[in-house]
Specification:
The complex is a heterodimer of chains A (373) and B (836).
Chain A lengths: L17 H17 L3 H12 L4 H9 L4 H40 L18 H16 L2 E2 L5 E3 H4 L10 H5 L16 E3 L4 H10 L4 E10 L11 E11 L4 H15 L6 E8 L2 E10 L23 E10 L1 H6 L8 E8 H9 L5 H4 L3 H4 L7
Parallel strand pairs in A: 1-4
Antiparallel strand pairs in A: 2-3, 4-5, 5-9, 6-7, 7-8, 8-9
Helix pairs in contact in A: 1-2, 1-4, 2-4, 3-4
Chain B lengths: L1 E3 H4 L11 H10 L3 E8 L7 E12 L6 E7 L10 E5 L9 E5 L4 E2 L3 E2 L3 E3 L2 E3 L2 E2 L16 E2 L9 H4 L4 E7 L10 H12 L21 E3 L5 E10 L9 H9 L7 H13 L4 E4 L7 E5 L5 E3 L5 E3 L5 E5 L2 E5 L3 E2 L17 E8 L1 H10 L5 H8 L5 H17 L2 E10 L7 E4 L2 H6 L5 H10 L3 E3 L8 E5 L10 H12 L19 H15 L3 E2 L5 E2 L1 H6 L24 E2 L4 H13 L5 E8 L21 H9 L6 E8 L1 E3 L8 E2 L2 H15 L4 E4 L5 E11 L2 E9 L1 H6 L7 E6 H7 L15 E10 L4 H12 L3 E11 L7 E10 L8 H19 L2 E2 L3
Parallel strand pairs in B: 14-17, 28-31
Antiparallel strand pairs in B: 1-13, 2-13, 3-4, 3-6, 4-5, 6-11, 6-12, 7-8, 9-10, 15-23, 15-24, 16-23, 17-20, 18-19, 20-21, 21-22, 25-27, 26-27, 29-30, 31-32, 32-38, 33-34, 35-36, 36-37, 37-38, 39-41, 39-42, 40-41
Helix pairs in contact in B: 5-6, 6-9, 7-8, 11-12, 13-17, 20-21
The chains are: A alpha+beta (373), B alpha+beta (836).
The structure holds zinc ion (ZN).
The site of zinc ion has 7 residues of chain A, from loops.
């Protein structure tokens, strides 16, 4: 650095000559523009803006100038450095954008790669079907009642107006539990229906009673495509003042429209169950052929066996004798009850051809049903 | 009950164009379960006519006898000339009337008929056998008709070949519909047409010179009608119409007398029995059997009678089980096997339903008769039925009715039921009105009094004798409602009071399923039946409490006579089934009840049904039931996390099983603690006992290698079983929201050396306790054994996160907390700081 000099003339200082400053500025700007990578730009930055760069050195000379010359020289250098920094910043942004674009391209992956690292689970469709039916009734104000699968004969039969010699008792092929002495006289069976839960509910609380009872029930059928010895029912019971067959019809119609959809005809067929009177079987119009397969051998329907109807379940007005056995005054209260077989509904609602698939626990059957149906 | 439409029309004048399906639809809406409508010979096309054999030329030189015949078919062939037909059957002679199918006809099959050359002759048609005409498989031979039929007569009509048969499944309350009479009554009501009741017959009154009968048990037998017919031609055959009706109804024609008793049973619903009078020794007696008595029934089986059996006897002892089956010793004899029966006693009796039902069950002899008696037979039909059988024996078998009429009747008071005229309205929720109610009750055969009294609101109704099921006003209301049609009942919604929604337990059960399915488990449902083999395979000791099972009297399989005490046998079975089908990486779960016999085994009493049982009585029912807790179980095999392009996966193991238990516990909102334990069927070194507080709620771990081998499962198969009821009981606490500190966290790591046998859970618990309330979280991030840890030691490395709620912790504070944590671990587990 030159020593301060009173008679110093800036034009006499080589580095501060305007043409020199401009040259240094232009060289810097050109070097930045020429930098093809961020590394080259960094080198150019050191060379042209670092301590040893021409402009930095020139800047240092200003201090030695006489006061009257400092301002002009400072302005000259300041403008040049401003232009250099601007060019540097611009190039920096350009090169970073280029780099980012390149890196992102390099980082691209095949997002169509399969990913099954997290195992998939599912709930059994019979479980979720029962829940859907429960929810329909809970929304109406019903409660869900449950009871034991190994049940007292009295609750499974007698309380439901099925006396010991009632022909209907042999209609249902019952599993009997061994008595302590090894005989069949234990008074205990595997429940053949969820109706004992209804009896338990009536014994347990005062009307009004509105409950649905889902659960597993047992009959001594062999397993085949349309039968299983262990199956599921959802039964419903309403006991209140003034309950009629009309209430039953309204309730079932609502359930069917929620569960299966509208637009299908229901058929109410008089039938016989000891615990209801009058009793009915409910048939749903076949949703596949809508009855057009009936008597029409050219258009057979597998779903309804060309009958045109699918059995949904049984129902009726609660037999007053059942109310009496459960301690409910039949002169004040009446009720209706219904029972639906879930396997059958699942078969129809979801086109399941073989009941064995619901029983065998093959995960390939259950997985597509997911968490809810 | 099979109902030929042509036969039904005999009692109800149904509209001419009405098809079987139309009639079935009406009957279904009235409550008869018509299962099928069978079309008999719907594709049969004539000409099919009566022919008379004019000549027979036996052709020789063939492997079997062949006949070249000329048959007079009247004008049916258009020419009136004899029809030339070749026939392979030989059971007919010149002059016989036969059934001839002519060219252009189509036999069932379909099998079109044309003139053709065969055995060197022209054959323009066929002489038909019963089988070829779809009349059953009974005989192969040619049908030979009675001689009075004119050649050329249409045989389709004559043999009633084309018909429709309704097959009706009769419910137990409708025994009367096990007869044409009953079904016809329903059809008449459904169509609003009059009924020609086949039981309305003129019957001579009882007298003292009928066959002697003594009824010693008027409860078991409240009616016994006996009639006798002599001079019956034992060689007489049942006429075509009778045979055809039996065939269409599903009953095989046997012999004329037996056919007639069956026919009358089908017609009026009264089972009849025919005895060969010459084989009955002395008076008939009806009584209960004596111990040691035996009978050989018609089916040739010798049966030991029980004291409860009601039997028909003569001087020799039992000759029939009442209402079930007759005995062989007094059976009607066929003329083909020696001198046939010529004198017949017809029995038309009424037996108690329960007695017959029990006898049929005891002797495993469900018969057409027992089926009807069990469901209730019209006691007033006995006389008419006997008369009808007598008439037919006279008419068809050439017999002579004897004048004696035996009719022993215990008093049968008619029941009268008082019913509010508006009861059907109140049950159905609609308005029928008194007139409709009265009319409908009359249609089912009731006598209705009080209907005429203006303003009377109570009807006095006497049900008909064939409806023993109508015993109270609600039975009557049902009749009205069903005949008016369920379709005409309006639909309405009851006003349901607000409910409580799902219970906590129900909500938890749902969460359990959702949580496990969310964790990658697939739900399965297994049968709860188990056998010794399954329990042996699980390696249970002889005195394991899980071997104490509820046993079934009549299991589906003798191999699996008991109910499960653990979910594992079924679940592991499902696992193996899946593996067998090529699904290798599996995680499955099941929820369901297990059945645990109570300490003291009891019998559930049969309580009264005419009133509410007492609380003690109800408790006695529950005392006889096993405990039935609800469980959840999981089983895993193969890879829990699959390998793939992302890297290596992880095999399923004991830790997954334990984690599944924690998943369920989290759904219940409770914290599980884990203890090392040894218990079958788990690996003795890899079994976790799961606790809530001090209560054991389940077990998890890897299965014992012996169990895995016995069940043919993949290595390292793991399982968990947990009692859901115990979790619910503890899972109802309300969470109070934590105060979340926004001060910075201070993290400290610590590596401890402990004896290998020290459970990590204990070390962690000690660290927690020692660290005090500044500890926010603790996490074990590394475990290793080996040289660096030292012989018989393991190293556990933890990250401790400290944080205060009210200030930034200093490094000294965090270090101090860490030191007290380590000190606690040292004191309780002998842990030593690694490197110290
Ligand atoms: Zn269909």
């Amino acid at each position: 650095m030159s020593a301060p000099n009173k008679s110093y003339d800036p034009v006499e200082v080589e580095a501060l000559k305007p043409e020199e400053v401009e040259r240094a500025r232009d060289e810097a700007v050109a070097a930045f523009a020429a930098a093809g990578t961020l590394d080259e730009l960094k080198q150019a930055k050191v060379a042209h803006t670092g301590d040893r760069s021409a402009l930095s050195l020139a800047n240092r000379e200003i201090g030695a100038l006489p006061p009257q010359a400092k301002a002009a020289a400072g302005k000259l250098i300041g403008q040049a450095r401003g232009a250099v920094n601007k060019a540097l910043a611009k190039r920096q942004v350009e090169l970073e954008a280029e780099r980012d674009a390149r890196v992102l391209v390099e980082e691209a992956v095949d997002v169509t790669l399969p990913y099954d690292r997290t195992p998939r689970g599912a709930r059994h469709p019979l479980t979720t079907l029962a829940e859907r039916i429960e929810d329909t009734f809970v929304a109406m104000g019903y409660e869900v009642a449950e009871g034991p699968e190994v049940e007292a004969e009295w609750l499974n039969f007698d309380a439901l107006n099925l006396g010991e010699d009632h022909p209907a008792r042999s209609m249902q092929d019952t599993f009997f539990v061994q008595a302590p002495d090894g005989s069949a006289d234990s008074g205990v069976v595997l429940r053949t229906q969820t109706s004992p839960v209804q009896a338990r509910t009536l014994l347990d609380r005062e009307p009004p009673v509105y409950v649905v009872c889902p659960g597993r029930v047992y009959r001594t059928d062999e397993l085949d495509a349309t039968h299983t010895p262990v199956f599921r029912q959802v039964e419903g019971l309403a006991v209140d003042e003034g309950i009629t067959f009309a209430d039953l019809k309204g309730t079932i119609e609502l359930l069917v429209s929620k569960l299966i959809g509208d637009g299908l005809e229901l058929r109410w067929r008089p039938s016989y169950f000891p615990f209801t009177e009058p009793s009915a079987e409910i048939d749903l119009q076949c949703f596949v052929c809508r009855g057009e397969s009936v008597g029409n051998p050219d258009r057979p329907c597998r779903t309804c066996s060309s009958e045109g109807w699918i059995e949904l379940g049984g129902c009726g007005v609660v037999n007053p004798r059942v109310l009496v056995a459960c301690g409910v005054d039949p002169s004040r209260y009446s009720g209706f009850a219904f029972g639906l077989g879930l396997e059958r509904i699942l078969m129809n609602r979801h086109n399941v051809a073989d009941m064995r698939d619901m029983v065998e626990g093959d995960v390939r059957f259950t997985l597509p049903f997911g968490m809810e149906i | 009950m099979r109902v030929p439409l042509s036969w039904l029309r005999e009692y109800v004048d149904l509209p001419a164009g009405e098809t079987g399906r139309d009639v079935a639809a009406r009957l279904v809406r009235a409550g008869l379960e018509v299962e099928t409508v069978e079309q008999l010979n719907a594709d049969l096309k004539g000409p099919l006519v009566v022919g008379q054999v004019l000549s027979i030329e036996e052709l020789s030189g063939f492997k079997k006898p062949i006949r070249h015949c000329f048959v007079n078919v009247g004008d049916a062939n258009g020419t009136g000339e004899p029809q030339e037909i070749v026939c392979g059957a030989t059971n007919f002679a010149v002059g016989d009337k036969v059934v001839v199918v002519l060219p252009g006809a189509v036999l069932p099959g379909p099998f079109p008929i044309a003139a053709r050359q065969t055995y060197g002759q022209t054959s323009a048609g066929m002489i038909c056998s019963a089988r070829e005409l779809g009349m059953g498989d009974d005989h192969n031979g040619i049908i030979v008709l009675e001689s009075h039929h004119e050649p050329g007569t249409d045989a389709i009509e004559l043999l009633q070949l084309v018909d429709e048969v309704l097959d009706i499944a009769v419910t137990p309350d409708r025994g009367y519909c096990l007869s044409m009479r009953g079904v016809a009554r329903e059809a008449a009501a459904a169509y609003g047409l009059p009924l020609a009741d086949p039981a309305l017959l003129d019957v001579p009154p009882a007298n003292s010179y009928g066959y002697p009968v003594k009824v010693a048990d008027p409860v078991g037998c409240d009616r016994f009608v006996a009639r006798t017919v002599t001079g019956v031609n034992p060689a007489a055959q049942s006429p075509i119409w009778l045979q055809r009706r039996l065939q269409k109804s599903g009953i095989r024609p046997i012999s004329l007398t037996v056919d007639i008793t069956n026919y009358v049973m089908l017609e009026v619903g009264q089972p009849l029995h025919a005895y060969d009078r010459n084989r009955v020794d002395g008076p008939i007696q009806v009584r209960r059997a004596q111990d040691g008595e035996t009978i050989t029934t018609l089916d040739g089986v010798q049966r030991k009678l029980a004291a409860e059996d009601l039997v028909i006897c003569d001087n020799t002892g039992p000759i029939g089980i009442a209402g079930v089956m007759g005995g062989a010793s007094t059976e009607i004899l066929d003329a083909a096997a020696g001198p046939g029966t010529t004198e017949v006693i017809i029995e038309a009796a009424h037996f108690e339903a329960v007695t017959v039902a029990r006898a049929a069950k005891r002797h495993k002899l469900p018969s057409e008769a027992s089926k009807r008696f069990e469901r209730g037979v019209d006691p007033e039909a006995a006389r008419a039925a006997a008369q009808r059988a007598v008439d037919l024996l006279v008419l068809i078998a050439g017999g002579t009715a004897e004048a004696g009429v035996t009719d022993i009747a215990a008093p049968h008071p008619l029941r009268t039921i008082a019913i509010d005229a508006d009861l059907p309205d109140r049950v159905a929720g609609t308005e029928y009105g008194r007139e409709t109610v009265t009319r409908r009750l009359q249609e089912v055969g009731c006598t209705v009094a009080g209907a005429d009294i203006a303003g009377a609101d109570i009807l006095q109704v006497t049900p008909p004798t064939w409806r023993p099921d109508l015993t109270d006003p609600y039975d009557l209301a049902e009749e009205v409602i069903r005949l008016e049609g369920y379709d005409n009942v309006p639909a309405r919604m009851p006003t349901v009071p607000p409910g409580r929604g799902l219970t906590e337990a129900q909500r938890f059960h749902r969460r359990t399923g959702v949580a496990l399915a969310g964790a990658g488990y697939v739900e399965v449902n297994n049968y709860p039946f188990v056998g010794e083999a399954a329990l042996d395979a699980l390696g249970f000791e002889k005195d394991d409490e899980r071997r104490r099972t509820v046993k079934l009297v009549n299991p589906l399989s003798d191999e699996e006579p008991a109910l499960r005490t653990t979910l594992l046998p079924g679940l592991l079975g499902a696992l193996r089934r899946n593996i067998g089908r090529g699904n290798t990486d599996l995680a499955i779960f099941e929820t369901g009840t297990v059945f645990l016999p109570k300490e003291e085994l009891k019998v559930a009493p049969r309580l009264p049904v005419d009133r509410r049982p007492t609380a003690e009585q109800l408790a006695s029912l529950d005392a006889a039931l096993p405990d039935q807790p609800r469980r959840v179980a999981v089983a895993l095999a193969g890879e829990r996390l699959p390998s793939g392009w992302w890297g290596k996966g992880a095999g399923a193991g004991w830790a997954d099983a334990v984690e599944a238990a924690r998943t369920v516990a989290r759904a219940a909102g409770v914290e599980l603690t884990v203890r090392q334990v040894q218990r079958a069927p788990w690996h003795p070194g890899r079994c976790a006992e799961l606790l809530v507080g001090e209560r054991v709620v389940g077990y998890a771990g890897e299965l014992h290698p012996r169990v895995i081998k016995a069940l043919h499962l993949p290595e390292r198969t793991s399982a968990m079983e947990l009692d859901l009821d115990l979790l619910v009981a503890d899972g109802t606490q309300r969470v109070s929201g934590p105060a979340v500190s926004s001060y910075p966290v201070a993290t400290q790591d610590v590596a401890l050396i402990v004896d290998s046998a020290v459970p990590a859970a204990e070390v962690e618990a000690a660290l927690r306790d020692g660290a005090g309330e500044l500890l926010e979280a603790i996490r074990l991030f590394d475990v290793f054994t080996g040289e660096q840890a030292g012989e018989g030691k393991k190293s556990l490395a933890y990250t401790l996160r400290f944080r205060a709620t009210d200030r930034t912790l200093t490094a000294d504070e965090a270090s101090a907390a860490r030191e007290t944590a380590v000190a606690a671990a040292t004191a309780r587990t002998g842990a030593v700081l690694r490197g110290a």
